[in-house]
Design goal:
Family (chain B): Belongs to the ABC-4 integral membrane protein family. LolC/E subfamily.
Structural class of chain A: mainly beta
InterPro entries (chain B): ABC3_permease_C, Lipoprotein-release_system, MacB_PCD
Main location (chain B): membrane
CATH superfamily of chain A: Lipoprotein localisation LolA/LolB/LppX
Membrane topology (chain B): Multi-pass membrane protein
CATH architecture of chain A: Clam
Shape of chain A: globular
Order of helices and strands of chain A: HHEEEEEEHHEEEEEEE
Strand content of chain B: 15-25%
Number of domains of chain A: 1
Helix content of chain B: 40-55%
Number of helices of chain A: 4
Oligomer: heterodimer
Radius of gyration of chain A: 19 Å
Mean pLDDT of chain B: 86
Number of strands of chain B: 12
Strand order of the largest sheet of chain B: 2-3-8-5-7-6
Largest sheet of chain A: 13 strands, antiparallel
Distance between the termini of chain B: 32 Å
Largest interface: A-B, 29 and 26 residues
Largest sheet of chain B: 6 strands, mixed, barrel
CATH topology of chain A: outer membrane lipoprotein receptor (LolB), chain A
Keywords (chain B): Cell membrane, Membrane, Transmembrane, Transmembrane helix
Amino acid sequence: MNICFWFAVLAIAAVEPPDGNALLARVDANIGSNGKVIVSEMIIQGRRGGRSVRTMSWVSGTDRAFTEYLAPERERGTKMLKLGDRLWTYSPQSDRTISISGHMLRQSVAGSDLSYEDMMEDPKLTNLYSAEVVGPDSVGDRPAWLLELKARAEGVAYQRRRLWVDRERDLILREERLSAAGRLLKTMEVLSVGRYEGRWLADRAVFRDALREGGGTEIRIDSIAFDVVIPEHIFSTASLRR
Amino acid sequence: MLAFLAKGLLRDRSRSLFPLLTVAVGVSLCVLLDAYIRGARDGILRTTASFVSGHVRVTTRAAAREGVGASNELALLDAAALQDELERDHPGVDWTPRIRFGGLLDVPDSAGRTRAQTPIAGMAVDLAPDGPERRILNLEQALVSGRLPEAPDEVLVAAELARRLELGPGDRLTLVSSTMHGAMAVHNFILAGTVRFGITAMDRAAMLAPIEGIRPALDMADAADEILGFLPRFQYDDREAARLAAAFNTGRGEGDDEFAAEMNTLRTASGLGGMMDLIDYASALIVGLFVVAMSVVLWNAGLMGSLRRYGEIGIRLALGEPKGAVYRALLAESLLIGLVGSALGTLVGLGFSYYLQEVGFNIAGMMQDATMVMDDVIRARIAPPSYIVGFLPGLLATFAGAAISGLGVYRRQTASLAKEFSG
């Protein structure tokens, strides 16, 4: 028993930590795709109870995304379009297309623990951060590398991040988003993972805004398709009112 | 005797003029400061009650803990039933529900695209013509253009905000906010009119909407962030408010239900308790400091007078007048000076106070970045205490000054008087 334990310890110690930026590039590559179509559900736990929002998203590269709310009834037909650093939302109740900018970007999306700023963020982390491996760690029964990320520029919403990346699957299992001063702002924890078109992806994860009370926001991916050819007209303001 | 002393004071102005002017100036300052502090305190209380907390404020416990900026998620549910209960139990108090909301005001162009956008601080109130809010918020007088809302989808915005966004009555605008559950709320309204409250924090970014129009927009059916209570004649009475709150809170929402209703007074709900105490203490402190400072000045004046009247007092003592009689005569003189100076100072102080009561002192320039809900014009208020607040201390200070400086009479040696005169 003792010999096995020490062999295990030595085996862990013998694993050479990878280069942080290279590991981060592998994480980006795992989720990156030219065209993705995702159907997901957000379950938001507020102080007065939970509610869920179902959406369908078309994502092209890192700077174009179109999302349509499918449920609940009050929000059905609400659409959001991201084109580069611009964001519009269309509300069928008011038949208005509104440009979201400035301080509104910090507001919560549909009452969740995610903000519009989170949605606007470049999903390719290597574009925003430089990474350094702090050391080996684990999340649940999965061995992981703990990565410390520092923003390359000042305008990035989270100046620092700590990622726990699955050593075999290049998948983020846990994340802490921090301010420049080290104040915890948001956390993400993967609840379950699945294999989709040969990639390991988190299909259930819970986000928590550390600055507000509530039970967090769980995101469940119902379906995801990679390398889908998405018609160009989807990513236009005209499609918001369609 | 008094007539004799009065004649002396009138004929020898150097004996009376300086002390009299000193007392008059001090008393008038005391009256003015007292009236000004009272006016400022009343103004802060009035605007805080009208726009922030009422005289008493009913919210959920969670919202009370988070203060006026609490999220709509913590609103009171079944607000109509709660308001009915409050009206039944406390019929003399005006009860009115309010919803506060933030967000963006988006102004569309002719094609419906965003032409202008700005953050707003919104308040939804019961704008019914027979409701108390029009009076509480002084809306008829605050209206700058257009008219007051008559339909649920009509709103008022601050005149300055309307000017910046180039908005006029009849224009369409869209509120982008959050529902009670946190979802995005986008709702169209029509601008009925523009208002100016004379409160920089409100006039910068205020939007005022009928509560029946905001409730569907923010998914807050029969909900309200707060139900405010206003005591009869709009007079805040801390003890009465505390009594109301204690009666309401007793036995309500036992346990740790953070959504149970809780009543707080203006003092606790607005966080003004400390400030109110400070203002009250400041009045007493000013009068106290005035008495001490004036006593010192008049003591000094008395000493100078004694020096100047060194010869006169010496002759009076040499002629056989007892030291006690001389001392009492000095005290009587000081009382006469105190009476006349205090009366004069009170009149002058009341005059300045009246001017500040009617015209006020405009501090809008200092309030550009202020977030405190406070009138831009601070006015003094003359009240019965204004008539005596300076008078009695003026009299006391003159008397104390003379009493201290006059003790010098007892230090004069009658045996050496002849030598002093021969020198």
